[in-house]
Amino acid sequence: MKYRQIPLGSIDTLNQKFEPEAYKHNSMKILFFQWKYHPNRHPIVKALLDRGHEVKYISQFAEPNREHYDAIEPIPIGYSRLYRFIAKKTGIDNDYMRMTMGWPPLEQLYQEMRSFNPDLVIVRNYGLVQAIVLTLGNILGADGILQEQHPKYKGEMKRIKPGIDKLYQLVFGKPLVRVTPIRGNVNTGETTDNVYYVPFPIDSELYKPLGKRTHFKNGKVNIISVGRFSSKRKNLIGLLCAINTISERYDIHLTLVGLLDDESNHQYQKLLSYIDDNSLNKIVNIRTNMDYQDLQEEYKRHDLSVLPAFNEPFGMAGLESMAAGLPLICSDQAGVSSNVEHGYNGYLFKEGSQRDLAEKIELAVQNRDNLIAMSENAIEVIKRDHLPETYCDRLEQIIEENFGD
Question: What is the pTM of this model?
Answer without folding.
Answer: 0.88
